[in-house]
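debug: dumping io for the single-chain case to check the tokenizer round-trip. Nothing else runs in this session.
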Amino acid sequence: VQLQASGGGLVQAGGSLRLSCAASGRTFSSNSMGWFRQAPAKEREFVAVISPSGGTTNYASSVKGRFTISRDNAKNTVYLQMNNLKPEDTAVYYCAAKSDYSFGYSPRNYPYWGQGTEVTVSS
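debug: decoded output
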């Protein structure tokens, strides 16, 4: 699976962005997908995960209620809608694919990664 993330940018606090992650590979619809982020001088952290069908999702407590993960298997694309952004959301955001349908909350659980897209939230 090859992943290409896009949609990052500079936004003011309280604003919104939608990230996209386009996947290639015929097993996309069989894999759980996740979003992670990494702020400067910090470790990569879990943001959200979605099941292969899109019917089940889970979020980090820091983004719950503000971010929404979704997917369109016909387009081989997973999305992260980010609302009410805060300066502490500033990071490089990565999409990642698992090799199966199970959920994972550690970067070590994901063998496939996109290149990252930068999100900067100004106060």
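debug: round-trip ok. The chain has a mean pLDDT of 95.
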